[in-house]
Design goal:
The chain is α+β, with helices and mostly antiparallel strands. It has 9 helices and 4 strands. The protein has helices at 15-22, 63-68, 86-100, 107-114, 118-129, 133-151, 156-163, 168-179, 183-193; strands spanning 33-36, 41-43, 57-60, 72-73. A hairpin with a 4-residue loop joins strand 1 (33-36) and strand 2 (41-43). Residues 91-189 form the HTH araC/xylS-type domain.
Amino acid sequence: MANTDSDADVLPLTDERWRAILANDAAYDGQFCYAVRTTGIFCRPSCKSRPPNAGNVRLFRSAEEALSESFRPCKRCRPTGRRLPDDEWIASVAAYIDSRFTEPLSLERLAEAAHGSPYHLHRTFKKVMGMTPVEYIQRKRVKLARKLLRETGLPVAEVGLRAGWANTPYFVTLFKKMTGVTPAAYRERQKLDSR
Ligand SMILES: [Zn+2]
């Protein structure tokens, strides 16, 4: 007697379904899966990952529906029934970083969003990408910082902040380590080069 309503587009998050998610109730697997808007990942009701914020949850009747809305299957509970290959998993983590690298991102936070353990994520990311997730984040930030230093007159501290570093001395040290020059020297050199 399920799903006979005419307005079949959205499966509502009823108390019953929400309880099933919170209790990781496997009896509901196959009846629906839930996606989390903030992470773009969807799970079986029985998934042991941390309960999402109810306001970010969207329900689907099947994994196919969730996939068609561009949600990605959780690596842990594998709602599509297939194991997600490492390459695909890491590509989704990299895409997550690409869209959020200016925010505070720790390995723990990434692992939580990617539904894997920090240790496993670190190892697998390095195997697939040739660098650790933290290195990947730092490269993205340095690239943005270089662009801001070249193209704007923003103070160095502000450049660091916009690229994702709240701590200016740390930003300057890391920038120098990765590029060989300080942010101020980099900006100066760009000015000379463009003359
Ligand atoms: Zn899951």
